[in-house]
Amino acid sequence: MAPIPITIITGFLGSGKTTLILNLVSQLPRTYKLALLKNEFGDLAVDSQLASSASISSVQELLNGCICCNLVGQLGDALDTLRKDVVPDRIVIETSGSAFPATLAMEVNRLGRETGNYVLDGVVVVIDVENWKGYDDTSYTAKLQARYTDLIVFNKWEQVDEGRYDDCLERIGDMDVDTAYVKSSKGYVDKDVLLGLDGGLARELVDGNDSALMNGHSHEHATDHQTEVEVLSVTLSGAGGEGSLDWQKLERLLRTAPKDQIYRIKAIVTLSTTPTSSNESTPALNGGGHEGQPATRYILNWAFGRWTFTPLVANEPQVNGNEASSSASSLGVHATESAEKDFVLRMTIILARDEANKWKQSLEKGEYLGLQHGQPDSNLVVTRLL
Fold first, then answer.
1. Exposed/middle/buried for 234, CB within 10 Å: 0-12, 13-18, 19+?
2. Is 125 helix (H, G, I), strand (E, B) or coil?
3. Minimal CA–CA distance to 245: which of 254, 306, 264, 200?
């Protein structure tokens, strides 16, 4: 059973966290199950009523306290309820404005280690550019939220002059951290930046229809967003569509990719050697994946220096004329025979501005990607999409 990815979204009061989530939901496939766990002070959950009106599978609340301190003990029970009742592809935790993200991230990691049911995908902080200078001066938590995060989303920057935005960048720079950051477009950020690849999002990619994943920028905000990130598409195939990826080369890329240059790496890979995730764990296999054994296809999700491998579920028999039911806990990705043989690697890389051309050249040299030694000639294609 594959662990459910968890995305933590934090930010000071009124920064625009709920708007960011609602804009995210509008980009997800109709069959995708996203569960939202919200933490509010007080007992009026207005935001949850708003969020539940969108295409969110379930909303659960932890009220009257902060999820990173006096409510942290309830987190496991809340996640377990969502896991059992909703069986989501992903859980998003939206924290109260005063929450300290590092404590929450450590608790999610602890629950993941102890139960095997969850994996932390990333911590996102939303900064209100219009007002952050004011509460940055007075709120220690606001500074901690910006420091202990994987991705900073600058929100409401359209409402101020460029000088105010530059002030925010300078204050972030004073914290001496290499943290990825993007501007939102009125609360909109592309899902490929916010989310890693999971079973629910990989269905189209596995079936060979990767345009939605790699180039899904048809939203009305896409033009603005394209100025914030760059995207590379990478495919690798062997002679006759067979072969497996060189694990040592791929591992070098995963371990050395700079977090301030590369935001996310999402891929479907074929390996004949069992890969190791960043926490040194190895994925549970459904056959294959050992040296000298038949190759296994995996979902690779790299985000902010952490990565996981999850075995791809093979085709399952049909039930009552329909494909067997699926969910995030079983990955729910069913590759057709022809799709599996089309490629050894299909990868999307989301990069910071002005980084794509440099990394395109590095990848094309074959230092980080190639077929396992001794296998037939490969065809490596690196294309810049944005």
1. buried
2. strand
3. 254
Per-residue pLDDT at 330 exceeds 70: no
- Helix, strand or coil, per DSSP, at residue 47: helix
The answer to whether 192 and 350 are in contact (CB under 8 A) is: yes
User: Average pLDDT in the 359-386 region?
Assistant: 88
| Amino acid type, 205 | L
How many percent of the chain have pLDDT more than 90? 20
Distances (CA, A) of 286 to 4, 63, 95, 310: 18, 41, 36, 10
DSSP lists the bridge partners of residue 298 as: 269, 311
Distance, in Å, from the CA atom of 116 to the CA atom of 113, rounded to the nearest integer, reads 6
Name residue, tokens 């079936």: 207
Determine whether 229 is exposed, middle or buried from the number of CB atoms within 10 Å of its CB (0-12, 13-18, 19+).
buried
Give the separation between CA 130 and CA 16, rounded to whole angstroms.
Answer: 12
Tell me the whole-structure pTM to 2 decimals. 0.70
Per-residue pLDDT tens digits for 245-272: 999 999 999 999 998 889 889 888 999 9
In contact, 339 and 217? CB cutoff 8 Å = no
Q: ∠ at Cα 70 (65, 73), nearest 5°?
A: 115
The torsion angle over the Cα atoms of residues 235, 238, 239 and 241, rounded to 10 degrees, is -70
Going by pLDDT thresholds of 50, 70 and 90, the confidence category of residue 358 is: very high
Q: How far apart are CA 269 and CA 277, in angstroms?
A: 14
pLDDT band (50, 70, 90) for residue 331:
very low
Cα 190 to Cα 165: distance, rounded to the nearest angstrom: 20
Grade residue 16 by pLDDT with cuts at 50, 70 and 90: confident
For the chain, the average pLDDT equals 74
Residue 256: its pLDDT value, please? 95
Amino acid at 19: T
Which of 179, 172, 169, 121 has the alpha carbon at shortest distance from 310?
A: 121
Burial of 52 (0-12, 13-18, 19+ CB in 10 A): middle
Length of the chain: 386
Secondary structure class of 167 (helix, strand, coil): helix
- Does residue 36 contact residue 21 with C-beta atoms inside 8 Å? yes
